[in-house]
Design brief:
With 118 residues, the chain is mostly helical. Helices cover 67% and strands 12% of the residues. It has a two-stranded antiparallel sheet with strand order 1-2.
Length: 118
């Protein structure tokens, strides 16, 4: 199967957005929490900072390591999206397009924030 440039771009944007959703977004925090321990430290200004450390060992540790690595999670989301696109195209296209549009919107918003805050 050969992908057009547009299909590749849409899949890339969808993977970008799905990866960010899984690794960083607040809405998926509850899903990630069983795989991390919280470490609270005080910085030089006396403010408390919370760090998420992947749990040690076992399946929770493995998933915690995976979820703490944007690049690792990105590989798996890309594999997932490509498989559902190839084998379940008619049902997966709406989800992939929504993720791609959200990904592009996030990129545009980030660029605008950088421009406006300069």
């Amino acid at each position: 199967m050969e992908l057009s440039f547009m299909e590749l771009l849409v899949l890339a944007l969808a993977s970008f957005r799905l990866t960010r959703l899984i690794v960083y977004d607040k809405i998926t925090e509850k899903i990630r929490s069983p795989f991390f321990d919280e470490l609270e430290e005080e910085n030089d200004d006396g403010e408390k900072e919370v760090y998420l450390i992947p749990k040690k060992g076992g399946i929770r540790g493995f998933i915690g390591e995976l979820l703490s690595c944007y690049w690792c999670t990105g590989i798996w989301t890309s594999i997932f999206l490509c498989i559902i696109y190839i084998f379940y195209s008619s049902k997966s296209v709406p989800i992939i397009v929504i993720l791609a549009v959200a990904g592009l919107a996030a990129i545009i918003e980030t660029i605008l924030q950088k421009i406006l805050n300069e």
